[in-house]
Amino acid sequence: MRKEPQQNQVVMFYPWCNERRLQTLVAVGEDNVLHFATGEEDAKVHLDADGIAKLVFTEKGKPPVEIPRRAAHAIVVGEGNATRDVYHYLKPGGPAPTMRIGITKHRGLGTWSSLPHDFELSTEPGFEEVFFYILSGGAKRGIQVGRGVWHDNTEVDAVWPIVDRSFGVVPMGYHPVVGEPGTSVWYVWVYLAKHARWEKVK
């Protein structure tokens, strides 16, 4: 997946905020392009100042499909200081068999995401999800909460710091994120809907 740097070229890949506890999903990124892949599915997410400009998805053996910003499915979730605008790019019925990708934008500064989707309240092994944090304002820092299980069913109950332009693995279960005072939080999310019951939207 990674491009090999040419001689005398410095390549800065986006860092990780925690351990890459993943079984199938691979995530890398640089220069406003995020690359997510499994053995059969591949997505390149192109970022700009407004979030995801476009997504290019390829399933093994099939031609690529481009999804522009205007084609994203937009919804509003949460309330109060946990209100977010969520844009789904890869969703059920689309070109991707299992890969689901979107971006969540918190409203306000220093605000939270809220409770998890219903299916995540009954934790089980095999779930893989990655966030890519886009933080602006203030210190461009925040805190990620993780309470649930990793893909191998190992339990976790922890918090860890996050920084702008970094990846993080989140467990199945309860995983809200908050920005420090004065910081706006957006995050690109990708997960694998290995079962129909793991779909976030219908």
Number of strands: 15
Give the assembly state of these chains. Answer: single chain
The major pleated sheet works out as: 6 strands, antiparallel
**Strand-residue fraction?**
over 45%
Low-confidence stretches: 1-11
Helix content: under 10%
The radius of gyration is 16 Å
- Series of secondary-structure elements, N-terminal to C-terminal: EEEEEEEEEEEEEEE
Based on helices, strands and strand pairing, what is the structural class? mainly beta
Strand order of the largest sheet: 6-7-8-15-9-12
Distance between the termini: 31 Å
Write down the overall mean pLDDT: 93
Shape: globular
User: Helical segment tally?
Assistant: 0
Characterization of this structure:
The protein has 202 residues and is mainly β. Helices cover 0% and strands 48% of the residues. It is built from no helices and 15 strands. It has strands at 26-30, 33-37, 41-48, 51-59, 65-68, 73-77, 84-90, 99-106, 129-136, 141-149, 155-163, 166-170, 172-174, 177-179, 184-192. A six-stranded antiparallel beta sheet has the order 6-7-8-15-9-12, with no helix packed on it. The radius of gyration is 16 Å and the shape is globular. It starts with 25 loop residues before the first strand and ends in a 10-residue tail after the last strand. The model is unreliable at 1-11 (pLDDT under 50).
In short:
The protein is 0% helix and 48% strand. By secondary structure, it is mainly beta. The chain is globular.
Topology:
Layout: E1 26-30, E2 33-37, E3 41-48, E4 51-59, E5 65-68, E6 73-77, E7 84-90, E8 99-106, E9 129-136, E10 141-149, E11 155-163, E12 166-170, E13 172-174, E14 177-179, E15 184-192
Antiparallel strand pairs: 1-2, 2-3, 3-4, 4-5, 6-7, 7-8, 8-15, 9-12, 9-15, 10-11, 10-13, 10-14
